[in-house]
Amino acid sequence: MVSNSYTVAHGLRDSTTAEANGHFGPPVWALHPSKMLPLLVYVHFPWCLEKCPYCDFVSYKTTREAIDHEAYADAIVRELDARQPWLEGHGLSSIFLGGGTPSLWSPRAIARVLEHIRRAFPTVGDVGDVEVTAECNPSSLDRDRARDLVAAGVSRLSIGVQSLDGEQLKFLGRLHDAPLAIRAIEAGVAAAPRVSADLIFGLPEQPPEVAAQHAATLVDLGLSHLSAYSLTIEPGTRFGELARRGRLPIATEDAHADAFLAIEATLAERGLQHYEVSNYARPGEEARHNLGYWRGASYLGLGVAAYGCGPTPDGAIRYRNATDPERYVSGTRAIHRGAPTLDDRVTVSVEPLDRETLLRERIMLGLRLAEGLDLAAAAEELGLDPSEVFRTRERAIERLRREDALAIEGTRLRIPPARRLATDGIAARLF
Questions:
Q1: Where are the domains positioned within the chain?
Q2: Partners of residue 226 on adjacent β-strands
Q3: Spatial contact of 158 and 197, defined as CB atoms under 8 Å apart
Q4: Range 226-234 average pLDDT
Q5: In a 3-state reduction of DSSP, which class is residue 179?
Q6: Please, are residues 88 and 100 in contact by the beta-carbon 8 Å criterion?
Q7: How far apart are CA 220 and CA 166, in angstroms?
């Protein structure tokens, strides 16, 4: 069963270095330090009104009044100022406010954070073209809040609907009902240039046609994008513990597959393209931030538990921030400027990634896309020899081609639509 989880721009090989020396040396970003690379900025807001039983993201149950909105924005700005020198040479491509429930955050605090991010980095393209997404829950999104978020600088709302069935919403631990979800979608569509919604399928005793009908109803409200995720049971969650005890009803893999195919067919009828395993969009309305992840762009993670990843001459480093809000906020008062290190109270892990590791990640993520992955271009961007990359994978590529699990167009690899449910397993065979 394919997992439903959530790239540096194509550079050119430096011919004077690579060809003259007969090998592929440093990656493109080291050979061309003046070349502006796209940067994704992720800001994590770690508070919710309720903790959903299936959620394994770092989030804490609280009330809106108990959150120190401005103090958390201050901490984000301090971390941004410290991390920014590490990512010189990058241009801002998109900003994503995730959580948790960012629609609980004060729009004034959000506006201040967005302003500082925009001032910290030049932009890729026009200033107004930077995609700014905020995740929202129906229980904290009405017309006034949607308008306030847009006024703060948000250009795209991503609304966590998950279902339009009352009993299913109770099973998922959601605070809203179907009418409230519809009102939130209508409020978002009225206020924001672009609106997406999340839907969960593969729920116990859910017929595939019901999952498809929920998708159709949401899109017919005016959405330009829909993310449809199969319910997965994660360790460390309430659902994970219930499943371990044998007390959680779970849909079969066949039921998941049937719902996946029913949703795909229904959305195709409405003109949405299935551009990634879990994502559908009208042409031109794809989530640019997520496309950046899938294509291998650098990303700056700000806030509690956020991950970031940026290039080094030998590959990249990935870091993670403290998961405790008090530690994070206090730690930002003494965070060091430059690349992430472990000798402060904000960064809790730093992982060096060599070029081969980065290539494996690029394969895993790139093959989730309908467009597939140009393996030669990815190799060149990472400072690897494309001919060697293909040579070491030649047998695996040919086997997958014979099994109709992989389509090959020049140096581009794609997984055919009929095999998308097996995406992760197919990609792993190319490691």
A1: 15-294, 356-428
A2: 197, 280
A3: yes
A4: 96
A5: helix
A6: no
A7: 20
Provide the pLDDT for residue 288: 96
- Residue 409 forms beta bridges with which residues? 412
The CA radius of gyration of the chain, in Å to the nearest whole number, is 22
Q: Which class for 102: exposed (0-12), middle (13-18), buried (19 or more C-beta within 10 A)?
A: buried
Q: How far is CA 153 from CA 23, 315, 368, 405, in A?
A: 46, 34, 30, 43
**Terminal-residue alpha carbon distance, the chain:** 19
More confident site: 265 or 26: 265
Phi/psi-derived region of residue 28, left when phi > 0, alpha when psi is between -120 and 50, beta in every other case: alpha
Distances (CA, A) of 230 to 168, 234, 278: 14, 12, 8
Q: What is the CATH number of domain 356-428?
A: 1.10.10
Mean predicted lDDT score pLDDT of the chain:
91
pLDDT at 372: 98
150: left (phi over 0), alpha (psi -120 to 50) or beta: alpha
**Joined tokens for residue 199:** 């839907």
For the chain, count helices (H), then strands (E).
16, 17
The percent of the chain in helix, strand and coil, each rounded to the nearest 5, is: 45, 20, 35
Q: What's the CA angle centered on 297, arms 322 and 87, to 5 degrees? A: 65
Residue by residue, DSSP assigns 241-310 as HHHHTT-S----HHHHHHHHHHHHHHHHHTT-EEEETTEEE-TT-S-HHHHHHHHT-EEEEEETT-EEEE
Please report the pLDDT score of residue 160 as a whole number. Answer: 98
Kindly state the tokens that stand for 6: 């959530």
What would the two tokens of residue 80 be? 């941004």
Q: How far apart are CA 287 and CA 296, in angstroms?
A: 14
Is the peptide bond prior to 292 cis by the omega test (within 30 degrees of 0)?
no
d(CA 334, CA 347): 11
Q: What is the pLDDT of residues 121-150, one digit of tens each?
A: 998 765 458 999 999 999 999 999 999 999
pLDDT tens across 174-201, in order?
999 999 999 999 999 999 999 999 999 9
CATH level 3 topology of 15-294: TIM Barrel (3.20.20)
Q: Which of 171, 178, 175, 140 is nearest to 157 (CA)?
A: 140
